[in-house]
Amino acid sequence: MTVGVLLVTHEGLGEQMLRIAIQTLGFCPLQIETLPIDAACMVEEMDAMAAVMCQRLDEGDGVLVLTDLYGSTPCNIAFRLLSRQGVSAVSGVNMPMLIRVMNYSHLPLPELVEKALSGGRDGIVLCQQED
Predict the structure, then answer these.
(1) Parallel, antiparallel or unpaired: strands 4-10 and 63-67
(2) How many CA atoms lie within 13 A of 77 on its CB side?
(3) What is the domain count for the chain?
(4) Are 96 and 37 in contact (CB under 8 A)?
(5) Of the candidates 115, 3, 111, which has an alpha carbon nearest to the alpha carbon of residue 57?
(6) Would 129 be classed as within a structural domain?
(7) Which distant-in-sequence residues (6+ apart) come within 8 Å of 25 by Cβ?
(8) Among 6, 34, 82, 119, which residue's Cβ finds the most Cβ atoms within 10 Å?
């Protein structure tokens, strides 16, 4: 078993990130689902969908919820999932974070959270030409 991953993001951001990550790696090593949130969504319905998805993804090792913008509706939905046992959430998802999570899919949830955080931070690099 591995930790399940739920991407709760604005519109189609999570789907596109997942598609690109799978294309980059050539496979998907863990169970990942996406929950796109649009501006006209019914938040209560999205909360219920997120809970069902979280339950489906948790095969006993927990669920890591990745969301895009701290304080936004997708993040608030992710935050409410934290009341469930075995759920952790990280905001600010980017491609390096997602690929790091996928590359370390064998880790337990607390260590996977740390990999997500380090992947997100380490993936932000100033690009400049060498003199």
Answers:
(1) parallel
(2) 32
(3) 1
(4) no
(5) 3
(6) no
(7) 99, 102, 103
(8) 6
Question: For 28-69, what is the HEC assignment?
Answer: CCCCEEEEEECCCCCHHHHHHHHHHHHHHHCCCCCEEEEECC
Range of the domain at 21: 4-122
Residues 6+ apart with CB under 8 A from 81: 6, 50, 51, 54, 63, 65, 87, 89
Provide the whole-model pTM. Answer: 0.95
To the nearest 10°, report the CA torsion of 121, 123, 124, 129.
150
Residue 131 lies in a domain: no
Is residue 56 included in any domain, yes or no? Answer: yes
Per residue in 9-45, pLDDT tens? Answer: 999 999 999 999 999 999 999 999 999 999 899 999 9
Question: How large is the average pLDDT for residues 113-128?
Answer: 96
Q: Note whether residue 128 is domain-resident.
A: no
